[in-house]
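Quick question: what would this complex look like in 3D?
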Amino acid sequence: MPQVIARFVALRLLVSVPVVLGILFVTFMLIRIGKQDPVAMLAGPLADASTYQMIRSELELDRPLLEQFAVYVKRLAHGDLGRSWQGGSPVLNEIVTHFPITLELVVLAVGLAALIGIPVGIRAATRPNGWFDQLSRFGAVTAFSIPTYWMGLMAILIFFYLLRWAPPPMGRLNLEVVAPPVITGSLLLDSLLAGNWAALRSYAAQLVLPVACFTLVAAAPTIKQTRAIAIEVLGSDYIRFARASGFSRATIRRMALRNSLAPILTFLGTELTSLLAAASLIEFIFSWGGLGQLGLNAILQGDFAVVQGYVLVLALFSVVVFLAVDLAVLLLEPRSHRRA
Amino acid sequence: MSAVTALAWPVGVARRSPTFAVGAALVGFFLMLAVLADLIAPYGPTQAFPYEVLKAPGAKFLLGSDGNGMDILSRVIHGTRYAFGIAVPAGAIMVLLGVPLGVLAGYKGGVLDEVLLRILDVLRAFPSIILALAVVAATGASLVNVVLVIGFLDSPIFARIVRAEVLALRHATFVRAAVAAGNPPWRVMAVHILPNAILGATAQLPMRMAWAVRISATLAFIGVGIQAPAPEWGAMIRQGAEFVISGEWWVATFPGLALMALVLGFNLLGDGLTDILDPRRKATGK
């Protein structure tokens, strides 16, 4: 068994190398052949031609495109992601400080979405086209159709401006609160570890609205997928056989859940990776200052080094998540051993 | 056709799939607004009243006025033209590019199929919003660019759906009969395979059009898409975002509601089509 797993992991990592390189290549070329001129943005409107050329050669933009990419990959192999063109700080540092902030938001949202979406989806699947199914389906499609950023704005309007329940949407901590020392990068854990209750309370209050919006976004497709998966499982021969054998409803439901788990898990994996990117908009609305906002600003400002690093993180994250999900499926379902 | 049967058809569809009916009604409503925008809207979409800035909804401005003193109702109505003006051509590109590609890849296999699968791998690992953002930021934010980017990015989805159907059909008896009868490959693909492989893609089209409406508004909201004062819903929400905290709620709320309703309409339409076209559900009579 450990051998099977080791081989599986090694193979998958090997296969993902060309995909990640492909994504990096596409991004690299895309931003460089575009109309955006980062040199002009950096040099400012008053710069003369020689200053412009100097910046251009400093950023190595005057070399052939393929050579630029080769140099980039070579440095990447040594763990060097370059420096931000705007602030000058190492891209790796930027990512290490911003990534946990967004990860915390996304994990909370997907976790809550799973807690809501899976039971609702299964309940809907037990009586397809019953009133509960119709209602949950309509609710899911509606939630799915709300633009994320607009939902954030409406949440701020209602809960901050009208009801005054939520704190101002200005980042993760109230300005009067001292942040706990960074240990894990997750503010929730860090303030717990430091015993900093003021920070914990402030952070929790700030978290409510963005997490709620994000959960709604994530719950809608979870309901839809779970329902589809559960209907398929409940219609299968072995469940019909179990019913005919006279097992109790609870037992049958447990069997169905157990067999739906693998595809649901796979779906939650895709959800996790796509939400990491979608986080940009929610972070933008709530001035959250995580990875999403970092990437969004980098794209808008033509900070190619950070854009490249951001895309790399997204790609690697999806590789790791899909690998973890497939491993879990492998352990859950002995059937898939042969396929591996 | 008598008047009775003409009326009975929509009623029958509505009974079979209420989802489809609601979706069709919503999309139809907005389509009507788009066509009749000049007749319905009380003012021009960029007609400004400089002395009546940020007026709350009232008798003169039913949905209020924005920071430039423009009527929000008129702008929301004219915004439907941007929504359909992007969704319809983008949807056409998706289908016209993706469907033939899928038929070809599925039927011929080989290198083309491999290349298509690799592109799909990369696209799947690449969040669509980030890709769209990067491409539009790079190519420049004109209406034509936004349409092209959305159309191109989504065409592989259609290619994949059609490819899967074609793979299943390739060895069907009627296809083998067509080949044996001496039809050239293009004829087998166009006449015998295509009509049988296209159903799945049909249900997908409204959902992808919903996505097109949504993502073009998102781009405008971030500031890389269509720019204000053009009456585009995303750009209008962007204009209104700064006023939410100071209480002028109507500027961002109404364009967002319209955006949500149209996206919902397209999604319900797609959902209903899936129901209607799925023979398994019909067979069970549920």
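Answer marked as accepted. The two ends of chain A are 11 Å apart (CA to CA).
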